[in-house]
Amino acid sequence: MSPISVVDYHTAGEPFRIVVDGAPPLSGDTVLAKRSHVRDHHDDVRQLIINEPRGHADQYGCYVTEPDDDGASFGLIFFHKDGYSTACGHGTIAAATWAFESGRVMGPEGENTLMIDVPSGRVMARVEVHRGRVRQATFVNVPSFVSGLGVRTGVEGIAVDVSYGGAFYASVDADAIGMDVVPANVERFIQLGRAIKADFELHPTVTHPVDDRLSGLYGVIFFNRLGLNHHRNITVFADGEVDRSPCGSGTSARLALLHSAGELGAGDVFTHDSVIGSRFVARVIQEVAVGQVPAVVTEVTGTAHRTGSATFTLDPADPLGLGFQLR
Predict the structure, then answer these.
(1) CATH number at residue 51
(2) Is the domain of 137 the same as that of 199?
(3) Are 249 and 89 in contact (CB under 8 A)?
(4) pLDDT class of 154 with cuts at 50, 70, 90
(5) Active-site residue list
(6) DSSP-assigned letters across all residues of 241-279
(7) Do 149 and 265 belong together in one domain?
(8) Distances from the Cα of 313 to the Cα of 47, 221, 299, 321, angstroms
């Protein structure tokens, strides 16, 4: 295997590893098709840089690829320890920041915009550049919508609301089950999140109305209400991974629920905190539809910061090979 060079960022505490050299072949006419191809035929690179000892159970990353057409600057294929996701808001913020700070995309001082193709569709990023550094980035997501309300699970009778923000999420009112979203409760949230996700494996509320490749429950969001339009959450995604950020696509999914319930009007600011105290701010900016389903367009703002770079190699004599997962 050839050396693989990466640049690491974090967005609100959540890691994001960008492959800048050594990516596997990314065949397909669209980013969504490339995602399927690399998942089915070239998964060794993901395993090498995500698995221990080079990564860890909560590591996240992406390949940068050609966009679907000339309307976008580049495409992103997101991956984690369990495979490949259809959306990643914190990753979009990190990649947009990297694009300007690395010179991949050039722009003047002040606000710049770029289009990025991700598996769930085309998103827009607005990036504020100051003296060559990015102060903050906002992504305008694909349309988000509600697909189920008050759905009883087989997990301790917990009820969830299901919504889509580039991926499907089940939202759980942590106050209603007597739990605080704090670091001390992380293991319990992982246990519940895994169980709820397994319970929803074939549930009709996580079937995408237009493209079945986007179907399936990706994560479970547990939230406390801190005040008007101000929540704290922990998102458990994939197989027990914990988002350190407030979760970008999950924030869009929460906005769809709050807007549908009449709790959040178009243009109202929603403050979303994470389990570690980091923050995104977000809002609904437009009402649209996905097929026949009412939906909203949302924007989510956060900050990303570079944490390092590395070149990873595989020693043919290494008995651990592509690495391992301890959990």
Answers:
(1) 3.10.310.10
(2) no
(3) yes
(4) very high
(5) 88
(6) EEESS--HHHHHHHHHHHHHTTSS-TT--EEEE-TTS-E
(7) yes
(8) 12, 36, 38, 10
